[in-house]
Write a structure and sequence with these properties.
The protein is built from ten helices and eight strands. By secondary structure, the protein is α/β, with parallel strands linked by helices. The chain binds zinc ion (ZN). The site of zinc ion (ZN) has 5 residues, from loops.
Length: 250
């Protein structure tokens, strides 16, 4: 998988040379095709184009992972109450700066027995354009905040916006993280209709699915209320993401 960009680049160079002898439009079409593949590869975490991300668990039993990104926030405590009520453990990919804002909530996530993962210090909108050194800093500084407030270290990393590229791949390697993706996307930060979000998640659920949610709104909380009932009805149990990486070490 890792060599895909290079193979593609090689093929592109060949096409490029031919194209230059041909028309400008052939060149342009090739260039656009190449760019599309690269951009698509950067955003689609399931492709594993630049980084091999874990997107699901290989399992024969009916189990799924609930993952919550971008917290802790003011909404996180109610998520924790609900999960506790249902005796469900989840994985929280926390942003360093959010931990600094809500250190007690971060400590409660850990105390409640959930798994935490690194989601960078600042979740920068320019994540896709940062240098490998800057990306490494983003991850390391989040690690430091987690250590300071939670006395915890994590091998798990989730790329902000699911974006991966060669610089991010280097940063993941430098910090020895495991990149964690998803195969069920709720789009809960984009879609407003709670029923739509609920349907999107439940429709695509399979054994071993990793579900991407955000503990950043009342809306997602209400989706979770129904989702937990759905999981119980359909006899799904839940796993935390560290159970995949732990069993892989054996
Ligand atoms: Zn995020």
């Amino acid at each position: 998988m890792k060599h895909y960009p290079f193979v593609l680049f090689y093929l592109f160079c060949n096409v490029f040379i031919y194209a230059f002898q041909g028309s400008f439009w052939v060149y342009l079409a090739c260039f656009l095709a190449f760019s599309t593949v690269v951009i698509w590869g950067s955003f689609d975490i399931g492709l594993g184009y630049f980084v091999n991300s874990i997107t699901h668990k290989r399992t024969k039993i009916k189990e799924v992972a609930l993952t919550f990104d971008d917290g802790p926030t003011e909404f996180t405590p109610q998520f924790l109450d609900l999960l506790r009520e249902h005796r469900v453990k989840a994985t929280f990919f926390c942003i360093g700066k959010q931990i600094e804002k809500y250190p007690e909530t971060f400590q409660r996530i850990i105390a409640d027995g959930h798994t935490v993962g690194n989601h960078t210090l600042s979740h920068s909108h320019s994540t896709g354009f940062l240098s490998a050194a800057k990306m490494t800093e983003e991850i390391k500084q989040c690690d430091e905040v987690m250590q300071r407030y939670g006395n915890i270290t994590t091998p798990l990393y989730r790329p902000p916006f699911g974006v991966t590229n060669p610089n991010i791949a280097k940063a993941i390697k430098n910090t020895r993280k495991k990149s964690i993706g998803w195969n069920v996307r709720s789009l809960d930060t984009i879609i407003n209709d709670e029923r739509k979000i609920y349907r999107k998640v439940t429709r695509n659920l399979k054994k071993g699915s990793i579900i991407l949610l955000h503990d950043t709104s009342e809306k997602t909380y209400r989706v979770l209320v129904d989702l937990l009932v759905f999981l119980e009805d359909k006899k799904y149990s839940t796993f935390t993401v560290d159970s995949i990486t732990n069993s892989k070490k054996k």
